[in-house]
Amino acid sequence: MKKLIGVLLILLVLTSCSKEPAPQDRFAEYIKLWNQQKFTAMYDYLSTDAKKNISEKDFTERYQKIYKDLQIKDIKIDFKKPKDDKQAKENKATYTFSAKMNSIAGPIQFTHEAVLEKEERDKQKNWYVDWNPSFIFPKLQEGDKISVSTNAPKRGEILDRNGNGLAINGQVYEVGVIPGKMDDASMNQVASLLKMTPDQVKKAVSASWVKPDLFVPLAKVSMDDQRMPQLLALAPVRTKKVTARVYPLGQAAAQLVGYVGTITAEELQKHPDYAAQDIIGKRGLEQVYEEQLRGQTGVRIMIQKKLGGVDVLAEKPVQDGKQVQLTIDSDLQGKMFTQLSGEAGTAAAMNPVTGETLALVSSPSFDPNQAALGFSADDFKALQDNQQQPLTTRFKQTYAPGSVIKPITALVGLENGSIKPDEEIAISGKQWQKDQSWGGYYVTRVHEASPVNLEKALIFSDNIYFAQAALKMGKDSFTKGMQNALFEKTLDYPYPLQKSTIGSLGNDISLADSGYGQGQVQMSIVHLMTAYTSFVNNGTMIKPTLLLDEQKSQPLGQLASKENTATVAGMLQKVVSDPSGTAHAANIPDYPLAGKTGTAEIKQKQGEVGTENGWFIAYNTNTPSLMMAMMVEGVQDKGGSMVPVQKVKDLYMSVKK
């Protein structure tokens, strides 16, 4: 019995050793390696005939290059083992497999047949894949080539509320030279006019492809560039019209609309779905709405047949960018920018009933057309070194609001009961301090009057009244009221804005100063207008919008009761209409305005000479439809807040009906 068992064990071992690998198991191993993209290991599974046609290095590199160039990902090769292996013959087996993957041109999927052959290597028999290029893609044969073509989308245009272009797809001149017609003198002239160095021109015309009679492009310039007549007068100069991004309003909307440019290496790391020469929004709304504006590049993957003809492997159609239409009025935008000419500051306009932003201006500015074509090094340095900071987008930043915050302080006090509109307060002189603990610090006012009630305090813009009002309501009530007025909150607005802040209010001096818009209070011009919409909407603030298709008149919160806002709104009319009002210079008899002036002092400590920012915000009270706000920097020697008052009045005069 023991002898029989021993014989059986020997037979079992011999049978196990002599059992050959099943072809389906062998192919399953190959498929697993393929899914893992282990191409070098896959090569070991190739038949002898297949290896004669391609080396391990070429096999591996071919797969790697194709998958990289076509951006192949999410690859899934599937092979279902048959229950019975009828396909396997004595020395050959045929199996069907399927492949799915994503590519730069969209999904690719196919089914294909693989033939495995039994071979003996190193005295061992095994199954090997009879590989050929059709395993990569079924229609790919030896000698064929894979190519990729792209179709660039048209970038979506940015339009104003009336369909006027703010950022459009227009044309510019591509300026170049015919090398055979250029001598040293004309080369120097061309270089000077195009703000290039002679060496840069030399390098361009010395490229390997250049011939004496060929056009060599050097730079792109706007169609209305004043240098064109001088350039065209030079013998070697030629021009071509080419498509480019054009900004019809130029500097007037540069900070708002922004500009585009060729993507940088750093930007490519953040946006891997872009190509090296793609155009991308660099700043402003061109950057904010990049995804909508850019569109999707059309891509076609083709197999170029050795004997002629083309097979399309995958195709993704081009999708042009989407149009973005703003609530902005180009005419008003241009007029506002003109009013700020030569000044550093910001201005904005809004329909206070609907919340639509009609203008958003920052001054000084830069030429977005030149920015899109590329600044010369000297031009860009001049912008950076300009003390008025033309590259700063002022309407997104926050500033000390000065006295334009007083109507908001008034509403906060009326709501919490700390301010009574008819209560008169005795104030002596132009300086005041709470007590001796303030040391040498005093709150000062311009107009000496006593007693003072809320109406007089607004008409005369009395700092002392509002400093005392803030102290009376206390830090907590003041903070709560200001937060209700959207301080310390991020406005839901398409263009990213800095958050308006109250500051620490660490002591009574800070609290008192904050009551009249100094201290650490900081406010953006869009937030200022948003808070003021409450005066024409029964105490409800209206959400500011910038897109024309966005819902209008969206409530953003109740700043104060209908009664309290009506009280303060009536006083704001008198700030303009009363001969003693700080904004009386803006009075237009047939076009009544309500508004508030402000002068914010910018200095490190009391007693030193600083600079002043002048503010003015106003809205028409007859069927309110237009609110304007303006801040001008450095008005200390120009008349203070009278600078923006006159400018805003001129704007109203130009648009009133």
Task: Tell me about this structure.
- The protein is an alpha+beta fold.
- It folds into 3 domains: 20-142, NTF2-like, domain 1 (Nuclear Transport Factor 2, Chain: A, Roll), CATH 3.10.450.100; 158-325, Penicillin-binding protein 2a, domain 3 (Ribosomal Protein L30, Chain: A), CATH 3.30.1390; 332-363 and 397-655, 3-Layer(aba) Sandwich (Beta-lactamase).
- The protein is 32% helix and 23% strand.
- It has 22 helices and 23 strands.
- The strands form 7 sheets. Strands 6, 7, 8, 9 and 14 form a 5-stranded mixed beta sheet that branches.
- Helix 6 packs across helix 7 (198-205), helix 13 runs antiparallel to helix 22 (642-655) and helix 17 (454-460) packs across helix 21.
- The longest helix is centred in the last third of the chain and has 22 residues, at 463-484.
- Mean pLDDT is 94; it is low at 1-18.
In a few lines, what is going on in this structure?
The chain has 657 residues and is α+β, with helices and mostly antiparallel strands.
- Overall tally of structural domains: 3
Give the count of helical stretches. 22
Low-pLDDT ranges: 1-18
Q: How much strand content do the residues show?
A: 15-25%
Largest sheet: 5 strands, mixed
CATH class of the largest domain: Alpha Beta
Would you report the number of β strands? 23
Query: Kindly, what is the distance between the CA atoms of the first and last residues, rounded to a whole number of angstroms?
Result: 120 Å
> Could you say which overall geometry the principal axes of the C-alpha atoms support?
elongated
Mean pLDDT figure: 94
Radius of gyration: 37 Å
CATH architecture of the largest domain: 3-Layer(aba) Sandwich
* Subunit organisation of the chains: single chain
Write the CATH homologous superfamily of the largest domain. Answer: DD-peptidase/beta-lactamase superfamily
Q: What do we call the CATH topology of the largest domain?
A: Beta-lactamase
- Class from helix and strand fractions: alpha+beta
Helix content: 25-40%
